[in-house]
Amino acid sequence: MLRKKLNEMAEFRNEARAARDFVQKTLDQQQKLERQARTAPRNSYSNLADQERKLQQSLEDFQAQHPQPFKKSETESQAAQQAMNRAADSLQNKKEDARATTQQATQQLCSSSTTPCGAVPASSSLPMPTKLKQMLDKEIQTLEQYGNQ
Question: How far is CA 148 from CA 7, 46, 139, 142, 145, in A?
Answer without folding.
Answer: 12, 50, 14, 10, 5
